[in-house]
């Protein structure tokens, strides 16, 4: 319908003025565009977020005017968010989506200044609901988040205070009973329906795509691309050591299991049978899949029971051990996983509030980065510099000996997080400097590059691990992340 050309004309006329002085012409142009976006006047639902989420003064004016069409007065936060999502499709890059949600939070606070203490508090709860939505309704390995865990995760995040428990319980039950969804264009509906029919005719592929490719959360969706490149395949034995947030995996679920591993795109698929490109993935295969976005693989130097074991720590702080068939294979897997994570991980999402007492990790989006190779390297270098500075400042103010146990634990948790992130970005930067194409499709010599992967390798299918594993006392201890002073042994 030429909507992009029309918007560009509006933007060109507007940007010809001084945007910083807030002139009436800028405001009028923003109002006209906002009205057209709201009424979908020669715009599609998928166009709206693109114009609201741009990082310039004119787009901010447009977003403010657009939100004025919504009156959230007297409405609950969850109902307001659902109403907001009915108007458009929340698509686009992670940063653009985040800006849209910030505008929503600002408008909700304007309409309900006495419900939640600050705009930051509204935004924190909005992000928390988005995360909860993915946890309860999206692809998730392990148990779903409980209401108690949801409340605990938000302790101290209401400008240093706690949110009312009644409010958090209501938000939790709302998301649990009905998942968050947003509107889509009519042609997208038809396309999805058509794609679904085709997949259904092909067997179980419909379930496979919906299991991995959940679109309910714009930040943490695990990409499932059937046409993604295959970077590495081979047999691996897996042991789940820690579940989400580093919680020790229950004893009955920690045994070794052998899989045929396929690193395809940014997902490590763990299959029962050898990889066949034309074969659809089973529900069990998808359940075992692991997204390697923002992950870090390393040699499990603190695991001594078996040889050739690597440790994979994921974005949500799960810890998995993998045993390869040889030391060379182990190193190849480490390099491939880290390289994929370095090349394709989208820039991290900043924490919602900077004044909270309780430490909270920022969001690490599973979407693939839109940055070029040079931009990705610069992004990682900037993040490495930021983390290094923050770690130095953190360690310059150790906790007082009189502080309570929880505060000390929180200090250690943040210390471990910063040290881990510093190490992760150092490795990412090093890999990108070696050259992206060379690392992902290098020759057979894997030093320092990466081995070339094959779609259908001929490998020995013998399991690299024994059927039974003896447990020792250390395995019964609760998992705690390593700190600079206390490094626990992985079992």
From TrEMBL:
Domain annotation PH: ranges: 229-342
One GO-annotated biological process of the protein: regulation of ARF protein signal transduction
Biased composition (Polar residues): 203-218, 455-464
Highest taxon, organism lineage: Eukaryota
SUPFAM superfamilies: PH domain-like (SSF50729), Sec7 domain (SSF48425)
Sorted UniProt keywords: Cell membrane, Cell projection, Coiled coil, Membrane, Phosphoprotein
Any Pfam family the entry gives: PH_9
GO cellular component: ruffle membrane
This protein's name: Pleckstrin and Sec7 domain containing 3, transcript variant X2
Species per Swiss-Prot/TrEMBL record: Columba livia (Rock dove)
């Amino acid at each position: 319908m030429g909507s992009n050309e029309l918007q560009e004309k509006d933007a060109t006329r507007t940007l010809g003025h001084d945007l910083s002085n807030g002139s009436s012409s800028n405001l009028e142009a923003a109002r006209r565009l906002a009205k057209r976006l709201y009424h979908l006047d020669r715009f599609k639902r998928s166009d709206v977020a693109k114009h609201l989420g741009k990082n310039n003064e004119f787009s901010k004016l447009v977003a403010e005017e657009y939100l004025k069409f919504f009156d959230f007065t007297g409405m609950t936060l969850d109902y307001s968010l659902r109403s907001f999502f009915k108007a458009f499709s929340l698509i686009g890059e992670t940063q653009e989506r985040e800006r849209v949600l910030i505008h929503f939070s600002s408008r909700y606070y304007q309409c309900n200044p006495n419900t939640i203490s600050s705009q930051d508090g509204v935004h924190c709860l909005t992000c928390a609901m988005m995360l909860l939505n993915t946890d309860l309704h999206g692809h998730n390995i392990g148990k779903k988040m409980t209401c108690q865990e949801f409340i605990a995760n938000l302790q101290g995040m209401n400008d240093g205070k706690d949110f009312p428990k009644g409010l958090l319980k209501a938000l939790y039950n709302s998301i649990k009973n009905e998942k968050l969804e947003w509107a889509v264009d009519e042609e997208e509906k038809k396309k999805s329906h058509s794609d679904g029919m085709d997949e259904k005719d092909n067997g179980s592929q419909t379930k496979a795509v919906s299991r991995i490719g959940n679109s309910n959360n714009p930040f943490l969706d695990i990409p499932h691309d059937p046409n993604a490149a295959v970077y590495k395949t081979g047999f691996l034995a897996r042991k789940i050591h820690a579940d989400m947030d580093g919680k020790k995996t229950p004893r009955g679920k920690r045994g070794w299991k052998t899989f045929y591993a396929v690193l395809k795109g940014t997902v490590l698929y763990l299959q029962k049978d050898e990889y066949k490109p034309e074969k659809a993935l089973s529900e069990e295969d998808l359940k075992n899949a692991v997204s390697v976005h923002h992950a870090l693989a390393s040699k499990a130097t603190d695991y001594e029971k078996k040889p050739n074991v690597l440790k994979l720590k994921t974005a949500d702080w799960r810890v998995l051990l993998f045993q390869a068939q040889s030391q060379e294979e182990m190193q190849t897997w480490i390099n491939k996983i880290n390289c994929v994570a370095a090349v394709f991980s989208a820039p991290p999402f900043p924490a919602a509030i900077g004044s909270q007492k309780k430490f909270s990790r920022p969001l690490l989006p599973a979407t693939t980065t839109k940055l070029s190779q040079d931009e990705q390297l610069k992004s990682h270098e900037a993040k490495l510099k930021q983390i290094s500075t923050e770690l130095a400042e953190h360690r310059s103010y150790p906790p007082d000996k009189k502080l309570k146990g929880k505060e000390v634990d929180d200090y250690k948790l943040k210390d471990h997080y910063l040290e881990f992130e510093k190490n992760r970005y150092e490795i990412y930067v090093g890999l990108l400097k070696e050259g992206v194409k060379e690392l992902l499709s290098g020759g057979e010599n894997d030093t320092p590059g990466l081995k070339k992967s094959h779609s259908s390798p001929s490998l020995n299918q013998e399991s690299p691990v024994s059927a039974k594993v003896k447990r020792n006392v250390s395995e019964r201890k609760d998992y705690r992340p390593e700190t600079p002073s206390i490094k626990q042994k992985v079992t």
